[in-house]
Amino acid sequence: MADPSMPVRTCVGCRRRAPVTELLRVVVRGGGLTPDPRRRLPGRGASLHPTAECLQAAVRRRAFPRALRSSTPLETGPLEAHVLRQVS
């Protein structure tokens, strides 16, 4: 049974709900998507399963600009590098 005190968020890639401990928080810094594994950076965040599949789905669906309320295109390079390091 799930812990009722654990916050739950929705992955912007696959749209499944999961505890925050299973998701990677992503914020906008300097016009690009920055991973926030410690969940401490300021600003609006989006949650993502740290898998290549969820990242690709989020990019394909253009979910990051919507979730982060950004009107400009966002660079995904640092986030992709972080996710690929985690998967390998």
UniProtKB/TrEMBL annotation:
- InterPro entries xrefs: YlxR, YlxR-like_sf, YlxR_dom
Q: Name one Pfam family in it.
A: YlxR
UniProt region (Disordered), positions on chain: 69-88
Name of this chain's protein: DNA-binding protein
Organism per entry: Modestobacter marinus
**Membrane-spanning residues where?**
none
Start and end of every YlxR domain? Answer: 9-73
Which keywords appear in this protein's UniProt record, sorted alphabetically?
DNA-binding
Q: Name one GO molecular function term.
A: DNA binding
